[in-house]
């Protein structure tokens, strides 16, 4: 059986095709990711973008549409995926996907382009509590992206630069607009770029950590979402949360889509 999970984020569409694998003698079914596809929607509207990304994933996997038993959608634009059988919240999908990747996970940190959230999960991957950043980008990836542009660095260079700094420069601004002027002031005062990069990522991590603390930091911490690719942010988050380790999936941006496809499969049983 094949199911699909579609994560309609603010910047990208993630599609995962999940295949159920029968293991002889096993009580529970096993699942494997058959295909993961990411698409930037560009000028397409949400439903067109979802359709294009889903079609591309099917073509790449060599799977026909009628082989997919169920399609679930998640993310901010999940209601606009007209061909989905059902929608689930980002918290539900993120918790399920994180525990699938790391069964020991109990605290999930989800940081994408526009939103960040902390999720507490039970051993079955069910979200039991969460706290979000209330629509402020200063706790998400677009904030880091805007600040990297101010420093004329790519996001990758920005994350790597922050790792070369051992300074702690407090950033007072809680808003992207004000923070940008703060960064400009630091540039004019000849503050090294790596110190500014670290200050920005420390500020994002601090806001994210405050959310996570509202639900409580318990057990193993997993970071999902696109910011998992930023090594500077990962380091800042570990420091802010005062933990020795943050578990990082191989494809952090696909974890919610994986969770979505898993829930679709489980609802078939």
Automatic annotation (TrEMBL):
Keywords: Iron, Iron-sulfur, Metal-binding. Pfam families: BcrAD_BadFG. InterPro entries: ATPase_BadF, ATPase_NBD, CoA_E_activase_dom, Dehydratase_Activator_Redct. SUPFAM superfamilies: Actin-like ATPase domain. CDD domains: ASKHA_NBD_benz_CoA_BzdP (cd24107). Its cofactor is [4Fe-4S] cluster. The keyword Ion transport does not apply. Residues 5-264 form the ATPase BadF/BadG/BcrA/BcrD type domain. The keyword Hydrolase does not apply. NCBIfam families: CoA_E_activ. This is CoA activase. It comes from Aromatoleum toluolicum.
């Amino acid at each position: 059986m094949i199911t699909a999970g579609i994560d309609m984020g603010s910047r990208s569409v993630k599609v995962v095709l999940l295949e159920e694998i029968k293991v002889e003698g096993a009580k529970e079914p096993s699942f494997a990711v058959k295909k993961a596809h990411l698409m930037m929607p560009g000028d397409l509207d949400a439903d067109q973008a979802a359709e294009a990304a889903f079609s591309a994933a099917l073509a790449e996997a060599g799977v026909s549409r009628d082989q997919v038993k169920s399609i679930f959608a998640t993310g901010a634009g999940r209601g606009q995926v007209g061909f989905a059988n059902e929608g689930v919240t980002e918290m539900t999908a993120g918790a399920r996907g994180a525990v699938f990747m790391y069964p020991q996970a109990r605290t999930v940190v989800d940081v994408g382009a526009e939103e960040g959230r902390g999720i507490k999960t039970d051993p079955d991957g069910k979200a039991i509590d969460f706290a979000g950043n209330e629509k402020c980008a200063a706790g998400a990836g677009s904030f880091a992206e805007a600040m990297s542009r101010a420093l004329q660095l790519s996001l990758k260079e920005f994350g790597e630069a922050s790792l070369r700094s051992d300074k702690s420069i407090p950033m007072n601004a809680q808003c992207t607009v004000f923070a940008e002027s703060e960064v400009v002031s630091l540039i004019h005062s000849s503050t090294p770029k790596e110190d500014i990069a670290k200050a920005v990522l420390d500020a994002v991590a601090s806001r994210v950590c405050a959310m996570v603390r509202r639900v409580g930091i318990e057990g193993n911490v997993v970071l999902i979402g696109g910011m998992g690719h930023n090594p500077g942010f990962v380091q800042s988050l570990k420091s802010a949360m005062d933990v020795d380790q943050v578990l990082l999936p191989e494809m952090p941006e696909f974890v919610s889509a994986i969770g979505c496809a898993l829930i679709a499969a489980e609802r078939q049983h």
